[in-house]
């Protein structure tokens, strides 16, 4: 998912999409998963030279990505659509001074219970051994940039350093997620549930465990027949409910909590064993997947409303 926070921020993307040829390129890539330059040019009935500028425009905006595929005649570039959704905030009136931001590394969970297939890895190596849950307690897990499990949960403690006397109005969590299949399976649904302080706030069904094509940031040493990338999801909980990518998934809202500058805030991701689709969970951080980010958290806050002192004369008291 591509999150555009203002019209000005999305200007180059709007320009990129204001072209019938570039729209046709995206449609062809969606229908065929991936194509090389010759295949695209042939289907569009234009020359490779004419196609190049359109490809560069779409790539620079992050709408498509490129992978290199080895052939008998060297490397061949393949093109694919990089995003599954575009979320545009047309009327964004955020007060940037009232937003607290923090990043949480994938391996910085505070609690867990996981079942094989499972594992963790840093940008350089696997942590311990795969499919052995004991290694989720290994000290090296703090450096992990990817983790996966078939069922169970991981829970993160969100740092809360809000200014004194502030209440929380909205929590936004952005992270790259996918299912977990042995090896990989692009069609492997999994029901991923989300919780704040052990209260269920909603769920999302991941369509698959994506592989076969190298993740943009996935290290070279990572096996190509393992999960490569996920989908960027934007979870928002505010006074109106809980949303994923702008779509409401539950009526659970911040009104069901009492969160302020003193609160402990725990965020849990789980695949329950009684879910309809027990397809596992993979969380991608920096150095893995298609988005070079950890778990990003933004907290909108505002001061508590202070009561207006009453008029002493109205109570019969004098000063």
Automatic annotation (TrEMBL):
Domain HTH arsR-type intervals: 2-98
Domain of life assignment: Bacteria
Gene Ontology terms, MF aspect: DNA binding; DNA-binding transcription factor activity
PROSITE patterns: HTH_ARSR_2
UniProt keyword list: DNA-binding, Transcription, Transcription regulation
CDD domains: HTH_ARSR
InterPro entries xref list: ArsR-like_HTH (IPR011991), HTH_ArsR_DNA-bd_dom (IPR001845), HTH_MetalResp_TranReg (IPR051081), UCP030050_HTH (IPR016943), WH-like_DNA-bd_sf (IPR036388), WH_DNA-bd_sf (IPR036390)
PANTHER family, per the entry: TRANSCRIPTIONAL REGULATOR, ARSR FAMILY, TRANSCRIPTIONAL REPRESSOR SDPR
Name recorded for this polypeptide: Winged helix-turn-helix transcriptional regulator
Organism (species): Defluviitalea raffinosedens
């Amino acid at each position: 998912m591509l999150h555009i926070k203002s019209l000005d921020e999305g200007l180059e993307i709007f320009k990129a999409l204001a072209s019938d040829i570039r729209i046709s390129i995206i449609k062809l890539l969606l229908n065929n998963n991936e194509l090389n330059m010759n295949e695209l040019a042939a289907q569009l009935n234009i020359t490779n030279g004419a196609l190049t500028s359109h490809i560069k425009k779409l790539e620079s905006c992050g709408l498509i990505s490129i992978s290199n595929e080895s052939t008998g005649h060297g490397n061949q570039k393949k093109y694919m659509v990089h995003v599954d959704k575009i979320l545009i905030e047309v009327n964004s009136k955020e007060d940037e001074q009232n937003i607290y931001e923090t990043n949480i590394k994938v391996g910085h969970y505070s609690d867990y219970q996981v079942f094989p297939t499972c594992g963790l890895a840093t940008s350089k190596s696997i942590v311990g051994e795969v499919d052995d849950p004991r290694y989720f307690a290994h000290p090296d897990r703090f450096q992990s940039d990817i983790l996966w499990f078939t069922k169970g949960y991981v829970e993160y403690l969100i740092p809360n350093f809000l200014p004194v006397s502030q209440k929380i109005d909205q929590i936004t969590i952005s992270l790259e997620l996918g299912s977990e299949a042995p090896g990989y399976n692009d069609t492997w649904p999994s029901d991923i549930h989300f919780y704040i302080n052990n209260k269920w706030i909603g769920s999302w069904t991941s369509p698959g465990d994506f592989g076969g094509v190298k993740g943009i940031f996935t290290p070279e040493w990572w096996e190509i027949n393992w999960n490569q990338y996920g989908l960027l999801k934007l979870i928002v909980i505010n006074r109106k409910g809980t949303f994923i990518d702008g779509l409401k998934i539950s009526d659970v809202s911040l009104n069901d909590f009492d969160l302020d500058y003193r609160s402990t805030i725990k965020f849990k991701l789980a695949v329950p064993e009684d879910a309809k689709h027990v397809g596992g969970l993979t969380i991608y951080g920096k150095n893995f997947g298609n988005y070079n980010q950890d778990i990003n958290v933004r907290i909108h806050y505002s001061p508590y409303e202070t009561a207006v002192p009453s008029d002493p004369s109205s109570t019969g008291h004098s000063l």
